């Protein structure tokens, strides 16, 4: 491999490290939540905001982050967001109150919304040869699919052996290492000319996404039929419809509609949004099942997710990366979604007395393997056919699909689970044994819904995606050939 090629792959290490940090932060705090809630005296009603504050800012500002990366240069956006993320993590780790911790989590989400699309678009413009691009996106997709499970493992270790604050402090060295490596290896790519920001589009899409994600988070407590939840969901939908109308008319849109019109890109976004419903649901249900029903410690719970991580790596690195340059995208995504759906079907067999190997582990392997097939292909084709100046916003679209899909899916499945649990307990005597059985009943009921959603999504993606088998030339003729590294 020549020197330029070696530096390209070394740059991918630091880009992947940044992406891992983003994905970790979605789940690493979950296991620490009971400890930090007690330490900072956070009420049960407010504890969800430690998670939701991050996801609201992240999901609501991703399109803006993608456009900033396109307008100011991806390397600059990458480095600034890494330093900002490290600072926000330091603030959160040192927080002595709920209010300061919440502010830090929101800041993390804001910088993450800039970091995620700049990282993915850097890969899109750096790796242009078909086989190299497939390998790069295989690695990146594996991180996107398995990072959440890694977060649960690391969160358990840090919480049990150090302190919950280290779930935030751990980001500081990771971000700084990625920033130093990125500064040394990535070329500046500031676009020629200056573009105006689409202020109306920014306000509409951010407001719409925040309203929908917030509405879904409120549904966990208030119910889907409450006036507040319905108002937020309907209002968010109206704002997003207005956003699309505005984008079709302005000269320099935040999200050029040409990015969404391509059937393969649209199918990639849809696959991610629906597939993460199963993954986020599994994180939620398995974590509570193992800790509450089976009595696992935080560390043991984290270790119990290792089979999922291994299956993701096998699917992403062993299969997707090899077949991605050779087969149509739906030939990997559709089977991946069906396998992931089978994993959620397996979750419906869980009982209070189920053993780990025949219950949780098998479901995790199926789900992880399916996600390993889906994510590398989806993140690759998320930027399929886009012009270089649109790479950031196309990357933001797939990140938005993942974040919003995960948030909506978690709220939806949690509501279905709690409803099924309440129905079960209403018809059974009150006792600890029946309480655990009721919890498992909720998990299995919601898992059945998740399986159905993913399976229906597989059919839709199979119909929508129409890109044929890739050529053996370059992966995307719209991406310039020179690599964006020194």
UniProtKB/TrEMBL annotation:
It is found in: Cell membrane. GO terms for molecular function: transmembrane transporter activity. It is a multi-pass membrane protein. InterPro entries: EmrB-like, MFS, MFS_dom, MFS_trans_sf. The chain crosses the membrane at residues 9-33, 48-65, 77-96, 102-125, 137-158, 164-185, 197-215, 227-246, 267-290, 302-324, 331-349, 361-383, 404-426, 446-465. Residues 11-469 form the Major facilitator superfamily (MFS) profile domain. Gene3D superfamilies: MFS general substrate transporter like domains (1.20.1250.20), Multidrug resistance protein D (1.20.1720.10). It comes from the Bacteria. This is DHA2 family efflux MFS transporter permease subunit. Coiled coil: none annotated. It comes from Actinomadura barringtoniae. Keywords: Cell membrane, Membrane, Transmembrane, Transmembrane helix, Transport. GO terms for cellular component: plasma membrane. CDD domains: MFS_MMR_MDR_like. SUPFAM superfamilies: MFS general substrate transporter.
């Amino acid at each position: 491999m020549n020197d330029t090629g070696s530096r390209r792959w070394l740059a991918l290490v630091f880009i992947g490290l940044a992406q891992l940090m983003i994905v970790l932060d979605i789940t690493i705090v979950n296991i620490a939540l009971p400890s930090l809630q007690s330490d900072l005296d956070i009420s049960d009603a407010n504890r969800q905001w430690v998670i939701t504050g991050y996801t609201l800012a992240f999901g609501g500002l991703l399109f803006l982050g993608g456009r900033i990366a396109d307008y100011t240069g991806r390397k600059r956006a990458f480095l600034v967001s890494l330093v900002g993320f490290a600072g926000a993590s330091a603030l959160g780790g040192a927080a002595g109150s709920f209010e300061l911790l919440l502010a830090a989590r929101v800041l993390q989400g804001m910088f993450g919304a800039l970091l995620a699309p700049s990282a993915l678009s850097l890969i899109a413009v750096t790796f242009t040869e078909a086989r190299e691009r497939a390998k790069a996106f295989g690695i990146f997709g594996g991180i996107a699919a398995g990072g959440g499970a890694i977060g649960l493992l690391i969160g358990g270790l840090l919480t049990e052996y150090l302190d919950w604050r280290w779930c935030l402090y751990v980001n500081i060295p990771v971000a700084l290492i990625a920033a130093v490596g990125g500064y040394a290896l990535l070329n500046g790519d500031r676009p020629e000319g200056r573009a105006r920001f689409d202020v109306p589009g920014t306000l509409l899409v951010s407001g719409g996404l925040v309203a929908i994600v917030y509405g879904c988070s409120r549904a966990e407590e208030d119910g889907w039929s409450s006036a507040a939840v319905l108002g937020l969901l309907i209002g968010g939908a109206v704002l997003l419809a207005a956003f699309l109308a505005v984008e079709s008319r302005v000269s320099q849109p935040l999200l050029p509609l040409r990015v969404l019109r391509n059937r393969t890109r649209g199918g990639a976004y849809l696959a991610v949004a629906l597939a993460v419903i199963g993954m986020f649901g599994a994180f939620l249900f398995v974590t509570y099942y193992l800790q509450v029903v089976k009595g696992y410690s935080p560390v043991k719970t984290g270790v119990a997710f290792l089979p999922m991580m291994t299956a993701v790596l096998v699917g992403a690195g062993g299969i997707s990366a090899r077949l991605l340059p050779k087969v149509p995208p739906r030939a990997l995504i559709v089977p991946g979604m069906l396998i992931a759906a089978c994993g959620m079907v397996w979750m419906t067999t869980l009982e209070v007395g189920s053993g780990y190997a025949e219950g949780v582990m098998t479901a995790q392997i199926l789900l992880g393997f399916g996600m390993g097939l889906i994510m590398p292909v989806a993140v690759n084709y998320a930027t399929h056919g886009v012009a270089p100046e649109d790479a950031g916003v196309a990357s933001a679209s797939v990140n938005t699909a993942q974040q919003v899909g995960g948030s909506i899916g978690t709220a939806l499945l949690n509501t279905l689970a709690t409803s099924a649990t309440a129905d079960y307990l209403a018809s059974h005597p009150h006792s600890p044994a029946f309480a655990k059985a009721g919890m498992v009943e909720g998990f299995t009921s919601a898992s059945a819904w998740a399986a159905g959603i993913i399976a229906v999504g597989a059919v839709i993606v199979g119909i929508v995606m129409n890109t044929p088998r890739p050529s053996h030339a370059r992966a995307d003729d719209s991406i310039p050939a020179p690599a964006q590294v020194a």
